[in-house]
Amino acid sequence: MNFQDFLEAVAHRPAAPRVLLFPPHPDDETLTGLLPLRLREEVPGTRVDVLPATYGSNEERRPARRRELEAACAVLGFQPLPVPETGFAPVEAAQLAPILGNYDLVVAPHHLDGHPRHRKTSLLLRHALKLAALPSPPSIAETDYWMPNDAPNLLVEASPRHLETLKQALECHAGEVARNDYHLRLAAWMSDNVRRAAEWLPRPVGTPRGTPAFPAGTIAYGTLYKLRPLDGRRSFVIPAPAE
Fold this sequence. Notes:
CATH class: Alpha Beta
Number of strands: 8
CATH superfamily: LmbE-like
Radius of gyration: 17 Å
Order of helices and strands: HEHHEHEHEHEEHHHEE
Number of domains: 1
Largest sheet: 8 strands, mixed
């Protein structure tokens, strides 16, 4: 499977997708940012914008977290959107709704992602989509980090270079990794994503029970997503290009 097949399933079937990353906090744009990273690298003309739902609960850290976000986005080739006129306060659905029509794909957490702010971010996006009332809304790629998505349908492979790029971007969030060195565990998390994907991704109708979604050992690292809307019997495995 390649990105051309994937884009056929995305709203508007874009040749050069416009992607909005709507992470709960700065650093989530990197943790779950493999899909937009590869789209930007492999699909000419792709633009990836980043709008954090919050800058964290520590108000004193918020300006620094903005600077860290800008540094991480520079590594990834993403564009952080300007801080809203309301400053570093959490984004409201009424602020998000007017810009959703600018995008083909929105990347955000699923509604049971374990962390309270991740769940709130998912619900806020759903509210904003209702407010926007778009005749052709963007597709949503739901991410997981704190709790697995119950029905993922997309696995994006990470090459060693992708893994290193994401780790480098995470290291830009210096204040966060100083209190929890989760950047050192990124590879382990992405390896476990592959384990789950082999059993959880939907198989084509008629596939024998117990058949893995892809041959064992062919993928080492990856990130899982749930693409909406998509027929529940379909799934995508997007291998990393040869390097």
